[in-house]
Write a structure and sequence with these properties.
heterotrimer, A mainly alpha (290), B alpha/beta (343), C alpha/beta (205), A: 290 residues, mainly alpha, MetI-like fold, 9 helices, 70% helix, elongated, C: 205 residues, alpha/beta, Rossmann fold, five-stranded parallel β-sheet, four-stranded antiparallel β-sheet, 7 helices, 30% helix, 24% strand, globular
Amino acid sequence: MRDGNALWLESYPYDRMLGLNRRQRTLLLTVLAIILLGTVFFLGIFSGEDKIATNLALRNLPPSWEHPFGTDWLGRDMFIRTMKGLTLSIQIGLLAASASALISLLLGLAAATLGKWVDEIIAWLIDLFLALPHLVTLLLISFTLGGGLKGIVIGVALTHWPTLARIIRAEVLQLRSADYVQISRKLGKSRWWIATKHILPHVIPQFLVGLILLFPHAILHEASITFLGFGLSPHQPAIGIILSESMRYLSVGMWWLAFFPGLSLLIIIRTFDVLGENLKLLIDPYNAQE
Amino acid sequence: MAVQSLAELQDYQKDYQNYQQGQVKELKLVPSALKKPILEIQNLAISFVQYTRGLKQKRTRVITDLSVRVNKGEVTVIVGSSGAGKSLLAHAIMGVLPKKAVVEGKIFYKGSELNPQRQKELRGKEIALIPQSVNSLDPLMKVGRQVRLGVKDQDAKKVQRAVFERYNLRTEDESLYPFQLSGGMLRRVLIATAVASSDVQVIIADEPTPGLDPEVLEETLTHFRQLADQGKAVLLITHDIDMALKIADRVAVFYAGTTVEIAPVRDFCGTGDKLRHPYTKALWRALPQNDFIPIPGAQPQPNELPSGCFFAPRCPLVTQTCSQKLPELREVRGGMVRCNNAS
Amino acid sequence: MLLKAENISFQYDKNSWILKDVSLTLQSGEIVGISGPSGYGKTTLCRILAGYERPQLGQVTLDGNPLPRSGFNPVQLVFQHPEKAVNPRWPIKKILKESWEPEDWILQALGIEKEWLNRWPHELSGGELQRICVARALNPETRFLIADEMTTMLDAILQAKIWQAVLAIASMRNLGVLVVSHDEHLLKRLCTRILRIEDLNNVKK
């Protein structure tokens, strides 16, 4: 509000970098992040299979202008391989993150709206899962389900839901006791109306941001599980496979097989992080105070 | 300055008597213009940068032109609507505005201009602030200790016990935590914290309306009155006119970020004829104990200030010149007013 | 209509009662005031009368019937802090529409500008928001209005304006109004009957 509330008292004129204020910088970063991710995805999907055909004449080439990331032991272009790998990782990450976020949403909502017993049980579950070291749990679940895509997606989903569920539960609980929600009831609105018109719109931004921030986790875990041999098989060359296969060639000096894919993975993950944080600032300024 | 009524003359006589008998340390009714103010604020302006719809920034003047003199032995009250504007004045004097605030104008203490270094030295010692919220107290520190923290170069415990006694707090209370005290007691602790330092000359109280409990309110106001009678300068910032009029010596009326009138408290009586600015008159008349009649329009917000006099859109006396330039504060009948048409 | 509170006792935690054995009545068309120091349960009483809390003992009735648990409540409460009483993500228009669409003359009487309807809550000041809340509470189905320090934070001119409008509408619709305020002058000006919370509330202090 304009009076008495520091919410609108924001940055000073000299908080400008590159001639942009904080809000504009946030938007710019968000757009750049989306462009980068979009490019990777585009390249991954639309590069023809011929680009990564085996070509034994071009084996083991270090990075050059024609092959910026070098080639591997089968003569395949590492750049396109990396792009495709990342794309696959992103897709898997999306699936796993969505599954996890969905569980979080359902359990978070349930805990906040279905009464004390349900809340206690779910709170207990949250504490339980948070106490377990999630990488170990993930490995176990993945292994038990026989690895592969199913193992990874279910593994990630079951180990990453607690944090977001807690946030959603807190949000909803707080909303239910808000003055304006109580007033809404006295104005004659039904519980369903209040849930969809008051509560859900508040929760959705948190949910989306939580979802996006889960991506890096999901992708990273896919890569590490596969790297350790518990995840995808070489038929599905996501980044994890690329990295694990490259290990064999490191001692021979073919550093580019691990370096570029690894670096690309890092950049993509950071980009998702940046995207998530900036979206949080843009979508939800009320909760994202500096 | 001519005395305007028998009542006024009698006021002067009584005041002089009190002074002679040592009941007050300073003559109150010396015309303020002749008194040397201990604290003087000249043309203070404070702006912030704000994000408007979309992504652009806009500079907003929360205080446009605030000038007021605070004298020793007097309670000066700044009255205005609830809002960020007036409270920022307290922070500006103490030198604790957020870094993002852009400040213009000058503040003089004991005749010389204040700068950040000087403010730091004076803060808590000669100039003390009684904050709005009792939450300013450290919840994890016993109240006795919090009061003692403000005492320097003296036997802290002795001073703290003395000031506790003065404000009706028991010695045992000094080892209690804030959550163990009632609202009224917390208010008294806040005052004690501010006046514990024996050097204190100016006390600024920011919106001390303590949860609207009439008893505690009366008590708090009495304390402020006593402080003034002891020769200190008290600057009270509030939105509550009733409370202001109970203890003020002089009232500065704040509208849309500017002082529009500074009047002695006795002008607030009857139909408000003695008041100078149309807004002050309207405010007085709108009180439930008077006419309870509003005037149309509303106070403009900081980012929608009209050109010229800010009150012009609602003013019954508005003329052409009023919308052209913001009038200066000028002296009229022993008070100050920012109006082209006041007499 | 008659709004009646009979022997209300209320506590938040098991150790202390906030209200003990409080009774009062409010007729349609009456303007009753409640004065008194803070800490004596004035706000809690308001919330109970408007159905926001259920008393452990005693009951609130409307012409003998309990307050409705769902559907529009004819007893409407205007909160002291308007910022918390509106959904910050809704435009003002939607906030008003949740209750009803007031005619122009009501907006004018309360000094609500048409252009505010398209703004967001954080763009309006406390005084402006409070006027929206009052307009929202003056739904045609409202029979009783409870004003809990409704104009305390507003300047005297705005206070006079809002009350003139509310009194006019209350008179037109024969509403019962309960005014809670610490301002004795305001209560004397508005109310036909003034009750003191210290007399109503039998909690030992």
